[in-house]
C-alpha cells in the first residue's frame, strides 16, 4: 500500500488539524499520535497507519462517539452501520480495497450519478476530495465507526477470495 503513502499522509494531517481546530483533541496528543503514525509508516504496516486509530485505541484521548456526535451536531452528517448493508456485486468487484484502507472510506451503494460513501475520515478534506474526484457524480457522505468499516472491507475481501476460488461453470 506504499503507493498510497501520500494520500495517507495528507488524510491524516488534515484529520489531525481539524480535530485540534474543533477542540476534539489537544495539540500535545496529536503530536504523540503523529510520532506513532510515522513509526507505523516506517515499519511498512500501512493498513494500521491511521491517526484516528492511534488517538482512539492507542492513546485513548478520543472516542469515536465524540467524533460522530460532532459530525451529526455540527456538520449535519448522517451515521451508518455498514453491517446491514448489502453491497451490489458490481461495487464488490470494483472496489479497490487498498485505497479504501488508506482513506478509511468505502463506497457502498450507487444510484445513477449518486454514490453513497461511508467514512471514518469525514473530517479530512483530503479524503472527501479524493473520493469525489475518484467517483465523479454526486457523493452522499455518511460517517461510520472503524469497526463497521473494517467489517465491511474484510467482508468485501473475503467475497472476492470466494469468487476467485469458485469453480468456473462450463
Question: Can you describe this structure in just a few lines?
Answer:
The protein is of the alpha/beta class and 170 residues long. It has eight helices and four strands, in the order ααααβααββαβα. It has two domains: 2-75, no CATH class; 78-165, 2-Layer Sandwich (GMP Synthetase, Chain A, domain 3), CATH 3.30.300.160.
Commentary on this structure:
With 170 residues, this protein is an alpha/beta fold. It folds into 2 domains: 2-75, no CATH class; 78-165, GMP Synthetase, Chain A, domain 3 (2-Layer Sandwich). Helix content is 58%, strand content 12%. It has 8 helices and 4 strands. It has a 4-stranded mixed β-sheet, sandwiched between helices. Strand 2 and strand 3 form a beta hairpin. Helix 1 crosses helix 7.
List the helices and strands and how they pair.
Blueprint: H1 5-21, H2 27-43, H3 51-58, H4 64-75, E1 78-79, H5 89-94, H6 97-103, E2 105-111, E3 114-119, H7 125-135, E4 138-143, H8 146-165
Parallel strand pairs: 1-4, 3-4
Antiparallel strand pairs: 2-3
Helix pairs in contact: 1-7
